Write a sequence for this structure.
């Protein structure tokens, strides 16, 4: 391989690197000075950079750099800047009612965006990220509301929760268990009647006596026509939406051992502004009244 | 010795010039740059280059100042890249970000255009129109104006520092800087309204990015055009390597015709009188002295050569003086050159003897091949031209047929559907209406198909069609809810078409939408 003697290529007059592979030698063309100096400059820059910015790992921490920059502090600054940028909106939301906010398209847009992000953090766990709910957890997209779907009512429900102990304004309702009051047959008859209200095929022979049973036992809360009552948070039983499951069996189960959902009161945790934004966001989903 | 008589009255000054890349110069590992002092050339190609410089620099500096009326809702600058609002204006064309493929198409055309030009006339891009070449030319004009031509500049460079030298150097670099500032300044005018930006620049109210950009471009212009010059072409630019690969035996290259020039002699008269064979080259080095790359074209085709053809001008001037035919250095193809070379060397068996290419009267024989311009029309060139034209026609058709009203629809995926209290099913869609002209428009939005379905837009009553005003040159985003009653579920299979139409111009865009039902209903 390398011989001590410098080898010069005959054709070009250029020195070779001294390496040879299968008779092929590599020319060692000169570098322009400016190129070399630029290369040195990048090295110096690199050294300067590691002095100016956090770089070298030590035993327990790293050098902090003479400029005192840290990406964490940068994030804090950026967040503070973002907050400052939103200040005027936040102020207006604080001094407006939910209806006033909705009347102002710009403010409404801000509230919806803010509400959507608060929803993902606080509400999606039960109601789902698309607010479509699940069995036992209401779907917030549809137009069926236990406690009312106007912005004001939504605000109240979110602020004070449902069956939340320790909040006087919370929404409370309780369906009694009919396991001891009605016989198994009567339960089946009532369920058959309730299911027939939505046009679902059911045994007419069972449903007929069920009608009287419903009037006697259920109508006081759910109403004569079974469309429910928002005063008691009694669900509409004559529509297509079944929070605790549809079908005769699910209805019988609910009559025997009623299940009651609980939602915490959010006002103490999130504050007035965020609850307003959440109410406006939920209202915008398509089912708002 | 039958040879064209040498013009006795003519004296040709021999210039001290040595190519920077001569093979006999032993190179150290790191090379100090060897200074080049190009001499002023005069001739046809120089004239042409002045013209090219005038046109290209004129286009660059003046374009941002051309006005173009687009009404009150769009800027009136003919060429404007509006990054903040993501619009590109080019005279009557306005491009939105999603139409950026037009720019990609132009770049494809530029690429094929370069291939086309290179295969037809060699490295003409490098020699005439490359910004590096043009600006170096401009900087050399300044240098010559302040410091004089080649010899004066060499003397000045070698002279010790004096008041006069300092004055000249300061003046030169100051003017170079000023050109740099003007160049960087012109660049930023493409990105904002030129007159108002200029005003704010002068009152120091312009955004800092404007000053930074000017500073960076001033630096690059000054360094590349004034200080680095040929180093940029030789060491930094990849294009010479690519272009070299695209040349073939029929490409035009600047060629020293040694079949008529060799053996060169500085004392042609004496040598001829002594009965020696002499070629046309009097070894005056004029070609080396004018070369902005500092090379000797007589060493053959070289990577450094940008084919600016200034050596042709210099040599033609000398040949005129001597009363010889022009074209000792000329644009020639490799195949013509090889044929003539073969003639002069008896097929490569003997050293060059220029008498073999001349008849008894001293004129070139009929066997000498001259440049035939029809060589440009060869398949390779025509193919490039064809592809270039096709891309151009494609872009033009695309431009003429493009939509100025666009409808983008995003079907809600979470939730996919919502069952309403009455059993009907609702689907949500985010609709974006793109009004791509700078005029306010009223657009009607309607659903076609699914006769049972109704549509609801916030702030509007429920129905199957709406009209809404859309802002000029803006995207209007709205959420629509489409509801299908239980009785019409069978219609969901086909989906529906969402149609946006401008009732006045009947321009329309259609989105074929799906409609989701709960699994049990499908």
């Amino acid at each position: 391989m390398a011989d001590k003697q410098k080898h010069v290529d005959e054709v070009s007059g250029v020195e070779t690197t001294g390496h040879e592979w299968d008779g092929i030698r590599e020319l060692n063309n000169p570098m322009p000075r400016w190129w070399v100096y630029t290369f040195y400059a990048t090295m110096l820059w690199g050294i300067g950079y590691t002095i100016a910015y956090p770089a070298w790992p030590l035993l327990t921490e790293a050098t902090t750099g003479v400029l005192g920059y840290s990406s964490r502090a940068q994030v804090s600054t950026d967040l503070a800047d973002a907050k400052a940028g939103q200040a005027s909106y936040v102020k207006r939301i604080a001094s407006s009612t939910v209806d006033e906010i909705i009347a102002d398209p710009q403010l409404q847009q801000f509230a919806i965006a803010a509400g959507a992000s608060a929803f993902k953090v606080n509400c999606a766990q039960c109601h789902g990220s698309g607010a479509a709910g699940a069995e036992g957890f209401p779907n917030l997209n549809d137009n069926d509301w236990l406690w009312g779907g106007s912005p004001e009512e939504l605000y109240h429900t979110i602020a004070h929760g449902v069956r939340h102990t320790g909040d006087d304004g919370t929404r409370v309702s309780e369906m009694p268990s009919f396991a001891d009051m009605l016989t198994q047959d009567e339960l089946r008859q009532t369920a058959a009647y309730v299911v027939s209200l939505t046009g679902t095929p059911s045994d007419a022979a069972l449903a007929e006596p069920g009608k009287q049973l419903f009037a006697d036992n259920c109508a006081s809360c759910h109403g004569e026509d079974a469309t429910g009552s928002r005063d008691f948070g009694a669900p509409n039983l004559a529509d297509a939406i079944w929070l605790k499951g549809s079908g005769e069996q699910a209805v019988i189960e609910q009559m025997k051992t009623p299940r009651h959902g609980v939602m915490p009161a959010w006002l103490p945790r999130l504050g007035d502004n965020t609850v307003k934004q959440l109410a406006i966001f939920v209202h915008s989903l398509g089912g708002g009244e | 010795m039958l040879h064209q008589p040498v013009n006795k009255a003519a004296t040709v000054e021999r210039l001290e010039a040595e190519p920077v890349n001569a093979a006999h110069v032993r190179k150290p590992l790191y090379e100090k740059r060897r200074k080049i002092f190009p001499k002023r050339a005069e001739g046809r190609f120089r004239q042409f280059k002045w013209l090219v410089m005038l046109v290209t620099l004129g286009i660059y500096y003046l374009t941002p100042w051309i006005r173009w009326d687009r009404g009150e809702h769009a800027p009136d600058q003919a060429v404007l890249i509006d990054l903040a609002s993501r619009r590109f204006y080019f005279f009557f064309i306005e491009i939105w970000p999603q139409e950026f493929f037009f720019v990609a198409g132009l770049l494809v055309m530029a690429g094929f255009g370069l291939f086309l030009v290179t295969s037809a006339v060699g490295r003409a891009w490098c020699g005439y129109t490359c910004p590096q070449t043009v600006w170096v030319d401009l900087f050399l004009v300044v240098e010559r104006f302040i410091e004089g031509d080649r010899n004066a500049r060499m003397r000045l460079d070698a002279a010790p520092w004096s008041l006069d030298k300092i004055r000249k150097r300061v003046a030169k670099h100051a003017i170079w800087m000023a050109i740099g500032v003007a160049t960087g300044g012109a660049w930023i005018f493409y990105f904002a309204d030129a007159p108002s930006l200029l005003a704010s620049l002068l009152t120091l109210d312009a955004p800092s990015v404007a000053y930074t950009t000017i500073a960076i471009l001033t630096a690059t212009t000054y360094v590349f055009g004034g200080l680095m010059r040929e180093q940029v072409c030789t060491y930094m630019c990849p294009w010479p390597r690519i272009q070299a690969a695209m040349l073939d035996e029929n490409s035009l290259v600047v060629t020293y015709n040694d079949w008529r020039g060799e053996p060169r002699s500085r004392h042609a008269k004496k040598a001829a009188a002594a009965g020696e064979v002499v070629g046309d080259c009097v070894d005056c080095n004029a070609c080396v002295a004018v070369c902005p790359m500092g090379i000797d074209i007589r060493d053959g085709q070289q990577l450094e050569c940008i084919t600016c053809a200034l050596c042709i001008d210099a040599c033609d001037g000398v040949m005129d003086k001597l009363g010889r035919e022009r074209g000792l250095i000329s644009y020639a193809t490799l195949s013509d050159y090889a044929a003539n070379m073969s003639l002069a060397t008896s097929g490569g068996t003997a050293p060059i003897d220029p008498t073999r290419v001349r008849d008894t009267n001293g004129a070139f024989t009929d066997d000498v091949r001259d440049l035939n311009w029809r060589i440009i029309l060869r398949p390779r060139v025509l193919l490039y031209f064809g592809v270039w034209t096709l891309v151009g026609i494609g872009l033009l058709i695309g431009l003429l047929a493009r939509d100025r009203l666009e409808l983008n629809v995003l079907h809600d995926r979470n939730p996919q559907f919502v069952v309403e209290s009455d059993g009907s099913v609702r689907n949500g869609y985010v609709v974006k209406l793109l009004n791509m002209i700078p005029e306010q428009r009223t657009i009607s939005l309607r659903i076609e198909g699914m006769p049972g379905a109704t549509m609801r837009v916030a702030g509007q009553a429920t129905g199957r069609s709406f009209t809404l005003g859309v802002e000029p040159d803006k995207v209007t985003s709205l959420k629509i809810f489409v509801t299908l009653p239980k009785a019409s579920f069978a219609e969901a299979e086909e989906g529906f078409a969402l149609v946006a139409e401008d009732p006045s111009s009947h321009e329309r865009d259609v989105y074929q939408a799906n409609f989701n039902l709960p699994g049990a209903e499908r």
User: Anything to note?
Assistant: Residues 74-170+263-284 of chain A form a domain with the Cytochrome Bc1 Complex; Chain D, domain 2 fold (CATH 1.10.760.10). Chain A has a mean pLDDT of 91. Chain A has eleven helices and three strands. The first strand of chain A starts at residue 16 and ends at 21.
